[in-house]
Amino acid sequence: MPKIIVALDGFSSCGKSTTAKRVAAKLHYAFVDTGAMYRAVALYFHRNQIDLANKDAVADALQHIDITFEFNQQRQASDTILNGENVEVEIRKMYISEMVSQVAAITIVRRAMVAQQQQMGKKKGIVMDGRDVGTVVFPDAEVKIFMTAQPHIRAQRRKLELLQKGEDLPLEDIIENLRMRDEIDSNREEGPLKRAEDAIDLDTSFRSMDEQVDFVLAQVERVKRENK
Ligand SMILES: Nc1ncnc2c1ncn2[C@@H]1O[C@H](COP(=O)(O)OP(=O)(O)O)[C@@H](O)[C@H]1O
Ligand SMILES: Nc1ccn([C@@H]2O[C@H](COP(=O)(O)OP(=O)(O)O)[C@@H](O)[C@H]2O)c(=O)n1
């Protein structure tokens, strides 16, 4: 069967990226973490003190942003490259999580990122995770999964991840950040986070990573069978 597009959307810290990365490796597909792109834009805006309310300044800044991904053999995962600099570690820090949703709510930012994402998936054979992949970026994706998990489980997972990277933050701060981002992401005008009507739900609260990867792979197999 020809290559397909697998779209994984959902709330923050449900396991989208870890699942997408493993599914892509199994299928020998490319993996794109669209959240990393918005995080890289937020980092650029932060460093260059771009006023988010100034449309001209935002549009001009976008002209100077080049985001690519580079495979890191040691991590066995892709690093995010902003204008030639590896920013993978920096964009995962809390100060970026605190501003990224405001940046991602700006329509011209979204249009620029969505256009790049559509270009990346033009030849299919891609697993992409984000908030609007199945609704806006690839509304015709062959497999669409909408991931959820209970809020306190998501926050605990994110706390552990940040701790492993050297950031020890109170659980309450993380819960509040996830709540705030989910709210902004769900209520923006352009490309809000919402379940595509034809998406399949996956609650990861009480699943292992292997189980959630197998769940997605089973959907891919089903689509392949149906299209034989
Ligand atoms: N089923 C699971 N059980 C335990 N931890 C998980 C599970 N799925 C993902 N994680 C962990 O939760 C954290 C958030 O996962 P991530 O894939 O980054 O979520 P998202 O991309 O949805 O924000 C990561 O540290 C990841 O390793
Ligand atoms: N397709 C996407 C992906 C991310 N985002 C934004 O980028 C932020 C960071 O995305 P992410 O996937 O890295 O977030 P985590 O859930 O991994 O913390 C989200 O909270 C959204 O504001 C978006 O608007 N659209």
UniProtKB/TrEMBL annotation:
It is an enzyme of class 2 (transferase). Keywords: ATP-binding, Cytoplasm, Kinase, Nucleotide-binding, Transferase. It catalyses: CMP + ATP = CDP + ADP; dCMP + ATP = dCDP + ADP. Its main location: cytoplasm. It holds the Pfam family Cytidylate_kin. The keyword Acetylation does not apply. Residues 6-221 form the Cytidylate kinase domain. One of its GO terms (molecular function) is kinase activity. It is found in: Cytoplasm. It comes from the Bacteria. Gene3D superfamilies: P-loop containing nucleotide triphosphate hydrolases. InterPro entries: Cytidylate_kin, Cytidylate_kinase_dom, P-loop_NTPase. Its EC number is 2.7.4.25. HAMAP family: Cytidyl_kinase_type1. This is Cytidylate kinase.
